[in-house]
Amino acid sequence: MINPIYYQESGIEKINQYIKNHQPTKVIFLVDENTRELCFPKVVSELEIESETKVLEIASGEENKNLYTCISLWEALTELKIDRKSLLINIGGGVLTDMGGFVANCYKRGIAFINIPTTLLAMVDASIGGKTGVDLGSFKNQIGNFALPQMVLIEPDFIQTQSFEQIRSGFAEIIKHGLIADSNYWQKIKQIQNPDAENTGNLIETSIKIKKSVVSLDFTESGLRKILNFGHTIGHAVESFFLENQTPILHGEGVAFGMIAESYISMKKNLLSPFENEEIRNYIASIYPKLPVKQENFDKILAFMQNDKKNTRNEIRFVLLEKIGKAVYDISVENELIIEAMTQMLKD
Ligand SMILES: NC(=O)c1ccc[n+]([C@@H]2O[C@H](COP(=O)([O-])OP(=O)(O)OC[C@H]3O[C@@H](n4cnc5c(N)ncnc54)[C@H](O)[C@@H]3O)[C@@H](O)[C@H]2O)c1
User: Fold this and answer.
1) Beta strand ranges found along the chain (DSSP E)
2) pLDDT for res 3
3) Domain that holds residue 289
């Protein structure tokens, strides 16, 4: 059970077909200030819509991925008299698709939505798989649900206007896909030293296939799907820490940090070989900047981990690597080892 994913012109055709078949009362486009300028004109010029259309714009940024923005959107939808037969089209990065899906799914108990991801990260990860939601204060994705879009349209050309830092952020999820599921894919990924629109654009389909195959076996994350959280237990906690300090980092930067630290934990748990741990650390550290995390921040970061959604009975549960290409989940890790792994991150 997963939403259909279409590429480029064939995707536009599918959306046009959907609109023709379903005749939505109104079509609402959700954009932010960047995607309104850079992506919306191309999408709208290719769609054939007879219904009335409206554009809703939100401010970009993780700091706006919260219930306040959702409320403003629900109010706007209400003001526009949007009924349950209307369609919401989300055009944006992961912040926008996470929030747009959540807004659509809660409004009048659910209206249909389509995702058009415009960042690498949203294409290979956030916009597919049906996890939607928002942050609560600094707690990442604390409020949310599972809600599938009618379809996802992938247009890799949109990546062309992303900055290097943003592409590198999305690339972290691609690295994760290789590490958890496919060692041959990892070998291919490792050839890339400077992620750009072209070399990462070629990886989108494989990454989507990996994510799709995992999600379709365990949509609600009762088991296997947890492997997609590799790097995210520590990564999300670090991201929350910086978000709380009002110096947000990019999602992929947190995940990159998390993947190195969690590989180290995997090695200490006698799962991953020291050789592969070194290989992972060297590669990721050669691409991502060192985060300004300090020893005195560890307690705070650990406190964020204690709220992680994968925990049970107050134990911090991790996804770890048995080897490159094979992840295991629900592994309880003691605080001392988590601190040790983060301490390693302070070294050069
Ligand atoms: N739902 C999931 O399964 C899932 C998975 C991974 C990550 N996420 C979430 O995704 C979010 C991160 O997504 P993101 O990295 O896309 O960040 P983002 O949505 O914040 O987008 C990054 C920036 O790029 C701009 N932008 C968007 N498209 C652009 C384009 N084509 N050209 C130039 N600029 C563009 C945006 O306006 C924004 O300023 C996080 O909130 C994370 O929690 C969700």
Assistant:
1) 5-7, 26-32, 52-58, 87-92, 112-117, 131-136, 139-146, 152-154, 317-323, 326-332
2) 84
3) 163-346
Q: Out of 160, 184, 211, pick the residue that ends a domain.
A: 160
Q: What is the CATH number for 240?
A: 1.20.1090.10
Ligand 1 centroid distance, CA of 273 (Å): 33
Ligand 1 atom with the shortest distance to the CA of 32:
37
CATH number of the CATH domain containing 131: 3.40.50.1970
What residue owns the CA closest to ligand 1's atom 3? 126
pLDDT confidence bin for 237, thresholds 50/70/90:
very high
**302 and 263 belong to one structural domain:** yes
If one counts the domains in the chain, the total is: 2
Assign 49 a pLDDT band (cuts: 50, 70, 90): very high
The residue behind tokens 């994968």 is 310
Give the closest residue (by CA) to ligand 1 atom 6: 126
84 and 173 inside one domain: no
Beta-ladder partners of 144 = 133
Q: What is the pLDDT of residue 292?
A: 95
Check whether residue 218 and residue 285 sit in a common domain. yes
174, 140: one domain: no
CB 322 within 8 A of CB 227: no
Q: What is the pLDDT of residue 307?
A: 83
307 lines ligand 1 (CB under 6 A): no
pLDDT digits (tens, 9 = 90+) for 250-262: 999 999 999 999 9
Phi and psi at 344, nearest 5°, equal -60, -30
Question: Residue 93 pLDDT > 80, yes or no?
Answer: yes
Report the amino acid identity of residue 339. I
Å from CA of 60 to ligand 1 middle: 9
Give the separation between CA 6 and CA 128, rounded to whole angstroms.
Answer: 11
* Distance from the alpha carbon of residue 336 to the mean position of ligand 1, in angstroms: 33
Asked whether residue 85 falls in the same domain as residue 35, the answer is: yes
pLDDT at 348: 67
Cα 202 to averaged position of ligand 1 atoms, centre (Å)? 19
- Whole-model pTM: value is 0.96
Tell me, yes or no, whether 147 and 243 share the same domain: no
54 has a pLDDT exceeding 80: yes
Q: Nearest C-alpha to atom 2 of ligand 1 is from which residue? A: 126
